[in-house]
Write a structure and sequence with these properties.
Elements (H helix, E strand, L loop, with lengths): L3 E14 L2 H9 L1 H9 L3 E23 L3 E22 L27
Antiparallel strand pairs: 1-3, 2-3
Length: 116
């Protein structure tokens, strides 16, 4: 009985950061979150292909109290389309056996007998 399912999914993810590496890491870190919203039990997520949809660099000047200590800052944003091979476990196809057991959280109170 095979309870695994393999499929390829295209996912669009976005990321931003102070460096190029942080922007890509932020985008690729969102892949698992997006796939977990769709599936229940995931065995493996394997990226196959990455396409860059948009890559932007924003430069601006930052100042303290609007006038003092100007410095140039850079921010990076990327949008990626990632083709992912996802292996999931089909939980609905698993057959469970039923067993009757005592309640594990119950408190056992011994029978108290009074002798008069």
């Amino acid at each position: 009985m095979n309870i695994q399912n393999c499929q390829q999914i295209k996912i669009l993810v976005e990321g931003q950061g102070d460096t190029k590496q942080h922007a890509f890491a932020s985008a690729l870190g969102q892949i698992q979150k997006k796939i977990m919203q769709e599936s229940e039990v995931i065995l493996r997520i394997e990226p196959i292909d990455v396409d860059i949809v948009k890559a932007a660099q924003k430069n601006y000047t930052e100042r303290f109290f609007f006038f003092f200590f100007p410095r140039k800052r850079t921010s990076y944003q990327v949008t990626l389309e990632v083709l992912v091979n996802v292996t999931t476990l089909l939980v609905e196809d698993v057959v469970f056996t039923q067993e009757q057991t005592a309640d594990p959280d119950s408190i056992h109170i011994p029978v108290i007998s009074k002798k008069i």
